[in-house]
Amino acid sequence: MQAYKLNATIDESGHLIIDEPLNIAPGKVKVIILQPVSSLETSTETPTESQPEKPRRKSKVKAFEGLFENVPPTPPDFDPDQARWEYLKEKHNL
């Protein structure tokens, strides 16, 4: 199975309109439609309590942009050298 990423629109009558030509063999296809998430104003979910905003962690690698949002903060007494040593001791059975 091969995946294609393309832009398309749904017209008022509910028909899918693909904006660019596809060079694929004739036959049956599976279509997966991803829609943007609606804004908070139109959402049916009611917020119970406002949560404090977490500081966003920036990344130079585009693939990692949203990865760090759900990671708990690093404790203030964290020692990276000690963590490396503990990892190596466990890995090499030292």
In short:
The chain is low in regular secondary structure and 94 residues long. It contains one helix and two strands; from the N terminus they run ββα.
Q: Explain this structure to me?
A:
The chain has 94 residues and is largely without helices or strands. The protein has one helix at 80-91, and strands at 8-10, 16-18. The chain is elongated. It starts with 7 loop residues before the first strand and ends with a helix. The mean pLDDT is 77.
Which key phrases capture this entry?
about 90 residues, little secondary structure, 1 helix, about 15% helix
- Total number of strands: 2
Helicity range of the residues? 10-25%
- What portion of the residues fall into strands of 2 or more residues? 5-15%
State the major sheet. 2 strands, antiparallel
The class by helix and strand makeup works out as: little secondary structure
The rough form would be described as elongated
Helix and strand pattern = EEH
Kindly report the spatial arrangement of strands forming the biggest sheet: 1-2
User: How confident overall, as mean pLDDT?
Assistant: 77
